[in-house]
Amino acid sequence: MQLENIPFKLGIQPIAWINQGIPEFPDLYSSEEIIREMASLGFSGTEMNPKFMEEDNFESILENYGMEIASQWKSVTFSDASLRDSELTGFKQHADFLNKMGCKAVIVCEMGGSDLSIPQRNFVEPLNEEQWDSLVKGLELAGEYCNSLGMDLVYHHHAATAIETEGEIGRLMDMTDHRSVSMLFDTGHAYYGGADPYALLMKYFDRIKYVHLKDVRKGKIENCLRNKEKFKEGVMNGMFTVPGDGDIDFAPILEMLVMRKYDGWALIEAEQHPEKANPYRYSKSAKEYIENLVLAMD
Which residues form the Xylose isomerase-like TIM barrel domain (predicted)? Predict the structure, then answer.
């Protein structure tokens, strides 16, 4: 049950239970088991996941447990002008699907030059000026389509992509129209990219329409960067965890969200091995941690 003085909607990401991006992590739970555990913890929202999309009766599962879908990730390559039109067509289809699911936000992340989809590459390839211009144009067109549906495009700054560091995030925010392009603020990816999560939240609060609450294990991230490990290797080695189990101070972050009356979704998230970090137990701990911090604000 949500605390009365939390203005935002606190949800939970399914990635703790099932992470198809890392095949080395086992698939241990059915879609219904995942949704049932989330609901039993008092969550009312989650994100769509490829596993969920394989279920013919998934909407019935959501309804049975009083859960809703907040959004879903959409990879794009708007930075390639030759692909922009086809990418925009795919994006619109995705936005239409989420709109039918009752979502108010579409999560998008640029994959051009990314280490995520090009596993043989150890470093992200920076976008050139032409690619930046193409990316901005594509995002604004996509955002305008979202607006026509009564939705927001929320850009996810993400490790191992072209928009990872504070400078890259700032450039994207400066180049895009605030009316069509908003931000997904992710505490863990902000830290990985070298930014102070609280400072980033404070600077771009008015652009933020969606939040991922993820903690980090500082030593693990430092090892990942120092040893030039790929992003996936860092995740497998445990660089991320749930709020309250790592090194980010969430008290000022939550205080800002509450005091400035952020009313969108804030989803707890942590990519961890489900056998090493039990999803139910870690999610329960994170929820209690967040609620206790908010209660302490009284």
Answer: 36-277
One-letter identity of residue 177: D
CATH number at residue 255: 3.20.20.150
What is residue 122's predicted lDDT score, i.e. its pLDDT?
A: 55
- The letter for the amino acid at 20 is Q
How many domains does the structure of the chain reveal? 1
Which residues lie closer than 8 Å to 54 by C-beta, 6 or more apart?
A: 31
Residue 122 lies in a domain: no
Pairing of strands 265-268, 9-12: parallel
Q: Indicate whether 106 belongs to any domain.
A: no
Nearest to 244 by CA among 291, 295, 211: 291
How far is the C-alpha of 40 from the C-alpha of 34, rounded, in Å?
10
What average pLDDT does the structure give for the chain? 94
- Transcribe 207-242 into DSSP letters: GEEEEEE-EE-HHHHHHHHHTT--HHHHHHTT-EE-
Domain boundaries, position 290: 9-75+152-295
**How is residue 234 written in tokens?**
């860092």
Three-state secondary-structure class, residue 108: strand
55 is a domain residue: yes
Q: Is residue 207 part of a domain?
A: yes
Rg (CA), the chain: 18
Q: What percent of the chain has pLDDT over 90?
A: 89
Burial profile 118-145: b = 16 or more Cβ within 10 angstroms, e = fewer: eeeeeebeebeeebbebbbbbbbbbbeb
Is 181:171 a contact under the CB 8 Å cutoff? no
pLDDT (tens digit, 9 = 90+) per residue, 58-92? Answer: 999 999 999 999 999 999 999 999 999 999 999 99
pTM for this model (two decimals)? 0.96
